[in-house]
Design a protein that fits this description.
The complex is a heterodimer of chains A (about 140) and B (about 325). Chain A folds into 2 domains: about 60 residues, no CATH class; about 60 residues, no CATH class. Chain A has 4 helices and no strands. The longest helix of chain A has 19 residues. The model of chain A has no long low-confidence stretch (mean pLDDT about 90). Chain B is α/β, with parallel strands linked by helices. Chain B has a single domain, classed as TIM Barrel. In chain B, β6, α7 and β7 form a beta-alpha-beta unit. In chain B, α2 crosses α3, α4 packs across α5 and α5 packs parallel to α6. The relative contact order of chain B is 0.14. The chains are: A mainly alpha (about 140), B alpha/beta (about 325). Chains A and B meet through α3 of A and α5 and α6 of B.
């Protein structure tokens, strides 16, 4: 499976028009739904499909210490903290355990590339399809 | 707790020996003035076990934390270097870590940092290349001899790593989770935001104990003496993630001398925190009111801060009355 995925990814990367079409399709879905910031290494499957890169500090491992008592952001007092939303949604889905996952530093080279193709090419960590973390997910 | 000490810093030795430690926060000056740093050192010497030197605290440009730490060492203090993610990318952070260790600084507190919009250069670009947990992970790796990219470091830095925790910000359950992540990433001591709402802190501490986290890292509770009702209002309204209960306001408003009342509240809080299981020390934050620290420490009955036991020396003989 991973061999096949790698081959598909390599094929897409060799064909710029195909790559671009996939990127546009991905953005069309993820931009309005997740307010995707195109980091190219999606962690939305861990964060209840809420993009943590929307945070002004872009923290990927949990909320900073500045969340207001009403759950709003310290930088934008009229908006919810994105991690507050992630927590609330994870709680409703029963996905709290996924929030314990450590996310590696962002590979800045992947900005504005397709996270789907990066995933198939094995450039980024896998998605999480389980409610709990598997052993290697921790 | 880990059976081995990593850095051998004076702070780590004290905590390892089971002493109730006292840390305080020192703000670098806003001018090119070494004498000002050395003068400030007098407030802390023989009064606290270690000083946190802030890194452009509240996103206001000041003398660098690293250089102030070097001066603080000259002034006879044990510095804790604060390193934020706001002003430096991973390259600059790693070079800062190497420089600090080479300069003899043995304690590092990793923070995400206040957002630049809070400070006096709101038009600046924030870096936020890593977050505080990734920073801790990176420096723990450096202690073990590897740069973030995997290259070898010879010789590696030796730093006692710490992180911050805010028991008062929402959502509560995530605060404990994030603490667990920080400890797993390599934090060995934890300093909290100042405690005004002691019942909320007790709840957080109970959750921390349930997870057994107090046995994996030394938890130092923050306290803050306040000068006036006005500064209390400022903290409540302008410092995000802080909780100040109504009774503290009432006490400050009713007091004839708010300064004295502020000190008394702080001393009482220290006494209450000292009795909580799992709290290994206090961290005094003053926001530019450093001259009051000797009085707070004295009134809290935490003096004298005895000399540090040298490595290999029998610790039990030097602790004496200061142990709690």
């Amino acid at each position: 499976m991973s061999q096949l995925a790698r081959k598909i990814a390599a094929f897409c990367e060799r064909h710029p028009t195909l790559y671009k079409s996939i990127l546009i399709a991905e953005n069309t879905i993820k931009r309005p739904l997740l307010r995707c910031q195109s980091c190219g290494q999606c962690v939305a499957s861990y964060t209840a499909f809420t993009c943590p890169m929307r945070c002004p500090k872009q923290v990927r491992n949990g909320p900073c210490g500045g969340v207001r008592p009403n759950g709003h952001c310290e930088v934008y007092p009229d908006r919810y903290c994105v991690w507050w939303l992630i927590y609330e949604r994870s709680r409703k889905l029963g996905w709290q355990k996924k929030l314990l996952k450590y996310h590696k530093p962002v590979d800045r080279r992947l900005q504005d590339t397709s996270a789907w193709i990066n995933l198939m090419a094995g450039k980024v960590e896998g998605m999480s399809f389980r409610k709990d973390l598997d052993e290697e997910g921790r | 707790m880990d059976s081995e000490m990593i850095s051998g810093s004076a702070l780590e030795r004290l905590l390892y020996a089971g002493r109730f430690v006292v840390c305080a926060e020192m703000c670098p000056p806003m001018g090119a003035d070494k004498a000002a740093v050395l003068k400030k050192c007098d407030f802390f010497r023989s009064v606290v076990d270690a000083v946190n030197v802030t890194d452009n605290q509240a996103a206001i440009a000041r003398m660098s934390s690293l250089m102030t730490c070097v001066f603080a060492r000259e002034g006879g203090l044990e510095p804790i270097l604060q390193l934020t993610c706001r002003d430096r990318n991973r390259l600059a952070q790693q070079s800062e870590v190497l420089s600090a260790s080479a300069a003899g600084i043995r304690n590092l507190l990793c923070l995400t940092g206040d957002h630049q919009s809070c400070g006096n250069h709101p038009d600046a670009k924030g870096v936020f290349d890593l977050d505080s947990i990734q920073l801790l992970h990176m420096v723990a790796g450096m202690n073990a001899g590897r740069f973030l990219c995997g290259d070898e470091i010879k010789p590696p830095p030796r730093l006692f790593l710490g992180g911050a925790a805010n028991p008062f910000a929402e959502p509560m359950e995530m605060r404990v989770m994030r603490l667990a992540k920080k400890i797993q990433a390599g934090a060995r001591f934890i300093q909290t935001q100042p405690v005004f709402d002691i019942s909320r802190f007790e709840k957080w501490m109970a959750a921390v104990r349930d997870e057994g986290l107090h046995e994996q890292a030394y938890i130092l509770a923050g306290v803050m003496p306040v000068k006036s009702t006005r500064s209390l209002v400022y903290i409540k309204e302008r410092v995000p993630g802080m909780r100040i209960p109504g009774e503290i306001f009432a006490r400050m408003l009713a007091a004839r001398d708010p300064r004295e009342e502020g000190i008394e509240i702080c001393v009482e809080t220290i006494a209450q925190l000292g009795t909580l299981p799992g709290v290994k020390g206090v961290h005094i934050m003053t926001a530019m009111w450093e001259s009051i620290i000797p009085r707070v420490v004295e009134e809290a009955g935490l003096l004298p801060r005895l000399d540090l036991p040298a490595p290999g020396q029998d610790i039990s003989q030097t602790i004496g009355g200061a142990s709690r």
